[in-house]
Design goal:
Helices cover about 35% and strands about 20% of the residues. By secondary structure, the chain is of the alpha+beta class. The protein has 3 domains: about 260 residues, no CATH class; about 150 residues, Protein Transport Mog1p, Chain A, CATH 3.40.1000.10; about 55 residues, LysM domain (Membrane-bound Lytic Murein Transglycosylase D, Chain A, Roll). The two termini are about 20 Å apart.
């Protein structure tokens, strides 16, 4: 969470994105592909203008664009696969960005803008998988799924109410707190609109087509989908939320079905380039998980070395760090930690946060505020009751004056009468020392060569995690539990 950045809703409705693990329907797509192929055209000036307008906001939303050799490598692969779509006729027609984000995501917007996060890139195991993911996103643009989704939203009067369409975080990796379909953000709410089952399958099919055209192994679409499904299952297990049904599961079939469909479309005996060693060399050294400059999540604790603060989520809740906020999610409530403009008056700050929740039905005006001190930090807080589709809820804003013109706050939501579940978190906020800040280190992806005597267990013990190191190692490398390593084989580790 960057210092004093406001959460915002993107005002452009051109964003085309999707979490590539969302499911698909098992229907034929040959007629659809033919229609898309015939409709493919050069990027229009209008699309270029729309994309250029949205591009800076998207970069800011996802932690900024990385530079350097890893970013240059990803850009080269992305432009190569995007050209296969026929949307542009030159590499210069596309802008490919490697995002400094710890969420598993990739998306594209009209105008030739293609994006993938470093976290999702690190999960892949060869260049064909990277090309497949980016090709899938370009496929959404080629099929004009964004326009179709926007038309449906307009018919339901959603866009008029929210003023924004931003998808891609349907696995709870958005960095925003949720309650049902409601998402808190500083300034407005976002409704995450997902692509339909058929649209996801169309994009998968187009991605496979682009892989073939570029000479890649088209089976890579299936293998990367499998890795992403396994990663999400592992994340759910580590968060203790295995009993929860992911949001995408309510409207999409299981990921295993999608993997099987992608493999069938590619052909079990298909061949082509994977460029595994080139890929591993190209991404070696990427930051993995949180960038300490945006704060670091360790279990239920969030620490920001630059802002010199730390807090702990309630038991049973998990944290997801975003570029501008931290979401806190659990069975009994949701919350977001963020910052807003501060003129030194904490009452006006809290009032401004409540006012920003204009679509939360939190009532008119600001509720009565109370003063307190938390670990020596002056604080103000208030509670409002609201009506939602999920019933009556309590909305709490709890803000802290850190001095020097800096303030931070939690916006929390829980069923009416249950907001006390967050009291421990509110009281856990504290300043950290210089020594504590200096001890926060980034994790990095490290490619190593297997030596004689190395095993899954011995290499996993070098992972920079205390929990589930073997499971993390296997998923990261696309290996099964009975995998046997051979000397000379290259594998990925996450180290400090």
């Amino acid at each position: 969470m960057a210092e004093k950045r406001r959460m915002f809703a993107l005002k452009s409705a051109v964003a085309v994105s999707c979490a590539v693990v969302a499911g698909v329907a098992t229907v034929g797509v040959e007629p659809v592909r033919a229609a898309v192929e015939s409709a493919a055209r050069a990027i229009s000036p209008a699309d270029k203008a729309q994309g250029a307008k949205a591009h800076p906001d998207l970069l800011a939303e996802f932690g900024g664009k990385l530079t350097g050799p890893q970013a240059a490598y990803v850009e080269s692969v992305g432009k190569t696969i995007a050209l296969q779509s026929g949307l542009g006729n030159a590499r210069e027609d596309f802008t490919v960005s490697l995002l400094n984000s710890s969420v598993n995501n990739a998306f594209a917007i009209p105008g030739g803008y293609v994006y993938v996060t470093r976290q999702l890139t690190a999960l892949m195991n060869n260049e064909a998988e990277l090309a497949g993911v980016l090709g899938h996103e370009v496929g959404h643009v080629a099929a004009r799924h964004s326009a179709k989704r926007q038309q449906a939203a307009t018919r339901n009067s959603i866009l008029g109410a929210l003023g924004s369409v931003l998808a891609g975080a349907v696995l709870g990796d958005s960095g925003f707190g949720r309650l049902g379909q409601q998402v808190f953000s500083q300034g407005s709410q976002l409704l995450t609109l997902k692509f339909s089952r058929t649209q996801e399958l169309e994009a998968d099919d187009l991605g496979i087509t682009y892989l073939r055209r570029a000479g890649y192994d088209p089976r890579a679409m299936a293998t990367v989908l499998e890795s992403l499904a396994r990663q999400n299952a592992l994340d759910s297990q580590l968060r203790g939320s295995g009993a929860e049904v992911p949001q995408w599961a309510s409207t999409h079939p299981d990921p295993a079905s999608r993997v099987r469909t992608a493999l069938t479309r590619a052909g079990a005996g298909a061949t082509g380039l994977t460029n595994r060693d080139k890929f591993l060399a190209g991404i070696n050294g990427l930051t993995y998980d949180d960038d300490p400059r945006q704060g670091l999540v360790e279990g239920r604790r969030f620490t920001h070395p630059d802002l010199r603060l730390s807090f702990e989520a309630p038991d049973g809740f998990y944290l997801v760090n975003g570029a501008k906020s931290v979401s806190i999610s659990g069975q009994s409530g949701k919350a977001e930690f963020a910052s807003a403009a501060f003129d030194g008056n904490l009452d006006r700050y809290v009032a401004g946060v409540f006012a920003s929740l204009t679509n939360s039905n939190a009532g008119s005006g600001t509720p009565q505020l109370e003063s307190t001190t938390v670990n020596g930090i002056p604080a103000r807080y208030g509670l409002a009751r609201a009506q939602t589709n999920s019933g009556t809820v309590d909305v709490v804003v709890f803000a802290y004056d850190f001095g020097g013109g800096k303030a931070y706050h939690f916006a929390a939501i829980a069923q009416a009468g249950n907001a006390g579940v967050f009291n421990g978190m509110f009281r856990s906020m504290r300043r950290i020392t210089t020594a504590e800040a200096g001890a926060v280190k980034p994790r990095r992806l490290t490619v190593v060569t297997v030596k004689a005597g190395d095993t899954v267990q011995s290499l996993a013990s070098r992972m920079a995690y205390r929990d589930a190191p073997v499971d993390r190692f296997l998923v990261l490398n696309g290996l099964q539990s009975d995998a046997r390593l051979t000397p000379g084989q290259k594998v990925k580790l996450v180290t400090y």
